[in-house]
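pasting for ref
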Amino acid sequence: MKLILALQKRRFGLLFLVSTCCISAMLSFLQCTTGDNIAGTGSHAGNGRITCALYNDDGSFASDAAVILRPHDYTASAEDMALGKSSINRINTRTDSRGVFSIDSVDPGTYCIEVNDGSGHAVLVRCTIEEGDSTLHLPSDTLRPTGTITGFFPPSMDNQEDLYIQVYGLERIGVHDELTEGFTVSDIPGGTYTIRAFTSSDNFKPVEIDSVTVKSSKVTNIGTVDLYHQSSWDHSRKLFLNTSADGAGVAADVVNFPVLIRLRQDNFDFSQAKADGEDLRFTKSNGDPLPCEIEGWNSVTREAEIWVKVDTVYGNNKSQFLVMYWGNPEAPGESDGGAVFDTADAFQGVWHLSGKGKEVASDATMNHYHGTPQGNSEDAPVAGVIGGARAFDGKTSYITMPNTAQSSLNFPEDAHYSISSWVFAERIDSLYRAIAGKGHEQYYLQFKCIKNKRATWEFVEFQNQLGWEYTEDSVPPAPGAKEWVYLTGVRSGTSQRFYINGELMVDTAALMPGEYDRNTTDNFTIGSHGRSVNLPYQQGWSFFNGSIDEVRVSSTARNDDWIRLCYMNQKNDDVLVEFRE
């Protein structure tokens, strides 16, 4: 005889029991009955016998406690529970005066044995009986206070009727409470379970959630069971956002933030998704859908870049997570840059600059300030920090956004706005190199090189009849040639700040005097000022020599936390998003 015993070590299900009537119904049929499909039907019927001694948590015998043996994959019927019927797919007996039970004639199989005193104390034992086994004396065990499982269905399921939760191996059913959108399953023996969510509708497949651990006298909240996504998409995983000190290191909450998700072959199986990633979906932990934009998707190289708008990224937190779903060939594409980079959230222009150099540089916002390449733009795509970037030859190539002179990019003096970009300079020479902005006499980012081969990054705003107020990195030579640098310039009324790689470098503007009129007739440009500059002296078109990625303009003064979070998320070694269990 060989008996394999597993006490609380395998994952079996537990179903959320909501109503008192369900509990009463369960207790009403804890009587000595034999399910014909467990005993007495197989060719080896009668071979298996199981015995065990049980104690109360005060050390006394657990006498007259209900003992129910069920197959490990047993689930209660919602209809039978409602009618107070017991299933034949089980064996019921009770412990004797010394707390001992004996179950005879058990067919080979894997079982859950629940011992429950009906007063809130129980234990669950799991065991396997193989063919030829005779008697198994299980180790003695103790009945302890039971636990509870709670959870929620997302609001998107409110119009669905008959939402249930089942528990593998237990006689428990959880029912959706439309008022609270939640469910509660009580009287659960301590252990680890698998639960099964389902609805009577044929539109949704049942969903299993494993590794649900219940502790004695404790409430386990499993969060939201997103039946819609989990039943329609074959695959899902959690993506954690770590803003703690060992992650992005951001202390305050950041709202309406576009989180960059990089998918690579080491964290995502591209063969499980549609060829263009159209079936990707993202939700909050409670099941609320999140807007996303697919910037790039390459199933050949197995690389993708997706932006997901998160309403609040919590500061100093490592437990917040999103849920990503994929594997639904019927799902239409929902990539929507305008929803992620919403003008209502102050995004006025966002140019990812992916694609070939001669292609239109699309603006992800609903403003649609799409850019037209000019000059000898390199057609071959170049690698950027976030997917592809645009290369500029330093001689003739730049991008202009037509009809933006009097657009929402036309900020008045002393307004509140921000401009940012990733920049890669090929070399340090003796010229001024414009990165992005709206004209030399309005505002811009630039790479200023001087004759001794030293250089600085700058953010500049022109003041009418006063000159150029500029903030630059304070310790030249700047991080410069042959490396990617993240620049952010912020204007907040009369104050001006400049950041490099997410860190504030200077918050006091210097002045290059010049009694000239402010010029607001220039279109927004990337890689040049878009015309020859001769004020206060001749410096030509200031063509940039290198690569530029992810240019953004916002009609608000972004704060330190926002800017740091952008850098920590977007840099190649992203420390915000974690692919972990």
